[in-house]
Write a structure and sequence with these properties.
362 residues; 18 strands; single chain; 2 domains
Amino acid sequence: MRTFSIFFIFITIFSFCKTPTQKTSTKEQLPKETTGQSETTPSKQNFFEHIRSFNSLQYEVEYYLASNPNAKGKFIVDLIKKEEDKKYGYTFRIRENLMFLQYNGNELMSVDHDKKATKIYDNLESYIAILPTLFPLELKNAVEKTPGEFHFENYILYYNSKSNLPIRAKTSGDDPFYFDFKNIKYNQLNLTASDLWNSESRYKVEYTNLPPKDKEGFIAKNSYAPNFNIKIPGGGGFSLYNTANAVTIVDFWYLRCKPCLKAMPYLQELHKKYAKDGLIVIGVNPVDHEIPSSVTDYLSKNGITYPTHVTSDTLDQLYHISNYPTLYVLDKNKRVVYSQSGYDEFEKVFIEQAIVNALKKK
């Protein structure tokens, strides 16, 4: 499906990193609330007004899959209220080790301080998978169906109705992600809005021989895909251009992207069906490099046997990845013959036809 709405970036239910609305709610066993304040004072204001009354918020977010609660990642979120910003009402920064996502009221930028790489996005829907960590931006669109629960389009936010502070967010789906809020501090950031946008983090990233884009932002059809050399979990390596006479699927994905996970069983089917004919399926995960064991566990539990490379490098930029999942089918000469973003059952026939046609050609 080629309909686009712009991060990680997209909003059709079938295609992009967006999950269906959760329709039922059961009693959630919530973690103990933690706060960086010396005490919390119950507020007569509703939750939305209470959160919006703070000039700044800072909190940690631990995230994990329901099926793998011991493999946790952690963000630190800084928000500074900016009333004049009509889009979000805040400037913000999300920190995960040396990976930052920051918004200055004009641009949304991901920053890799380790690789000195940056990427500019048009809006936050690109990062729809982490929207629960930025709930203050969306509160005006939430519905409080029961006390202590705010229902958003893709997740539920649980909060303490006495302190009016968040406790947990839970995404929809059969294997939801949990986001637990910890060490909440408000009105304690000694920063201005401009401080969150450090000019020193604007690295200049230069690439040579970047492939041309088509009008939808993919590598243009019949263009050569960039070569890459990767390590495969369990030992060994893979070089794209050392796979002569092989048709290759390159799938860009990450754990918090539900459409990515929905696509993987189908890619596993293709791997089993066509491997003997010369098809190679490679998964590339440029997001979860801080939690590689979670990736390995997920692949093992779900029977995904084709190789996946978890990386912190810039393959996603080389391949013009702006939303997830993104899939390329490459012919035996490593030219692009098919590209797709998102997951849609109706696209399966086109993917398989592209593979069959590429395998037939000399």
